[in-house]
Amino acid sequence: MNSQEKKPESEEPLQIKPPKIGVVRHLRGYFFAGVLITAPLGITFYLAWLFINWVDDTITPLLPPAYNPETYLPFGVPGLGLLIVCIVMTLIGALTAGMLGRFWVRTSERILSRMPVIRSLYSALKQIFETVFSKQSDAFREVVLFEYPRRGSWALGFITGKTEGEIQSSTEDEIVNVFLPTTPNPTSGYLLFLPRRELVVLSMTVEEGIKMVISGGIVTPPDSRSPEERVVKVAASNGDTKTILNADN
What we know:
Layout: H1 23-59, H2 80-96, H3 99-113, H4 118-133, E1 142-147, E2 154-162, H5 166-169, E3 175-181, E4 189-195, E5 200-202, H6 206-214
Antiparallel strand pairs: 1-2, 1-5, 2-3, 3-4
Helix pairs in contact: 1-2
């Protein structure tokens, strides 16, 4: 017998091999990472390209051939129509700033005000654009949370201004205009007149709120408030009891 006996195979220590990650799993991860990076960029550039082409196809044919660069070039100039629109809008703004331009605007408005249907459309569009582009405007400056369409169900909206006129004078509360957008198209929605005390003003920006609406809640902005500012503004829903803590009823 040998002095050194062999150990039985059952007593040999077991070696646990780490699981192998398949090549397919790696490739699938790389593929989804590539989609995550390229899809937003590709869709953004594609939509921008469609808009630029639409403006070019609409404006460029209006140029006389003698002033159209595409007449002398063997290729098209992308963005030419958009550049022309920007230049024309700038020139119109500069001309209307003078006395002759203001006279022309007043005359045009007098003519439009005598047209039954067009005067209402023009007045509404003018007021909307003046409100949106005004530097002192508060339109779409605040994102609010409010109960809609029932108690305990919450909706995200945007304050578009302070309610005035007959609507405000007919109510005792301070009423504000709130735009409730639809998902995933935020350009359509509902105009609501709500008491300010029943609104919860959020700290998120308008851009973050619009992203949340478009994505259907998939893209949720983080809470950027400090720990001291993170106070509970909305109580748990319990029948007809008060939900908004800072409301009076």
